[in-house]
Amino acid sequence: MSHTKANVPFQPLQIAVLTVSDTRIPENDTSGDALVDGLTEAGHRLAERVICKDDVYQLRAVVSAWIADEAVQAILVTGGTGFTLRDTTPEALMPLFDKAIEGYGELFRQLSYEEIGTSTVQSRAFAGVANRTVIFCMPGSTGACRTAWNGIIREQLDARHRPCNFVEMVMTARPVETACGPRG
After folding, report:
1. Can you spell out the DSSP letters for the chain?
2. How far apart are CA 166 and CA 184, in angstroms?
3. Residue 168 backbone class (left: φ over 0; alpha: ψ -120 to 50; beta: rest)
4. Cβ(148)–Cβ(108) under 8 Å?
5. Residues 101-153: pLDDT tens digits?
6. Distance (Å, rounded) from C-alpha 178 to C-alpha 55?
7. CA-to-CA distance for 149 and 142, rounded, in angstroms?
8. Which of 6-15, 135-144, 165-174 bottoms out in mean pLDDT, i.e. has the lowest?
9. Within 13 A of 97's CA, how many CA atoms are on the CB side?
10. Residue 183 has what pLDDT?
11. Which long-range contacts (CB under 8 A, 24 or more apart) does 54-59 make?
């Protein structure tokens, strides 16, 4: 369900993509590919793409560098959100957040339920904001990445989406017009 404001221009963002995996390499990272395809097709720019082992400190190092980089406005993380011993993305990244976006995980699981049923309870999808950088974390499957991008993230990273989106918050260099504002 799209709610766009026609007189607001699209604002391309610089978006980094992180795949959390002990086994994926660039040649078989279909989840990372899906996110890169989605963001570029929407008109955004890929700031950087990294595949990182599921290690709390390596994950924090990569994401912390992007959070500190004013050129990176959003981060998409795929993988490490399950319940195995190796799934540490929430433990690694949640401490970096200034604010959590609780509704993202709730909405992701609602959308995912339509596709995979009750298995969605094993997803610890989550999101937050750190240093004016919005971070969306989703499961490592390609389908989950498409669900998250198409069902939630694409609109929330579009300045035209109303009644609100994250674009104005992440655009630190200059004020930008968005569809946010009074809900009239």
Report:
1. ---B-TTSPP---EEEEEEE-SS--GGG-HHHHHHHHHHHHHT-EEEEEEEE-S-HHHHHHHHHHHHH-TT--EEEEES--SSSTT--HHHHHGGG-SEE-HHHHHHHHHHHHHHHGGGGGG---EEEEETTEEEEEE-SSHHHHHHHIIIIIHHHT-TTBSS--SHHHH--SS----S-S---
2. 19
3. alpha
4. yes
5. 999 999 999 999 999 989 888 899 999 999 999 999 999 999 999 999 999 99
6. 37
7. 11
8. 165-174
9. 19
10. 41
11. 54/20, 54/21, 54/22, 54/79, 54/80, 54/86, 54/87, 54/88, 54/89, 55/88, 55/92, 56/88, 56/91, 56/92, 57/92, 59/18, 59/20, 59/88, 59/89, 59/92, 59/93
Token pair in block for residue 15: 């978006």
Amino acid making up residue 36: V
**Residue type present at position 4:** T
Q: Which two tokens stand for residue 49?
A: 């793409």
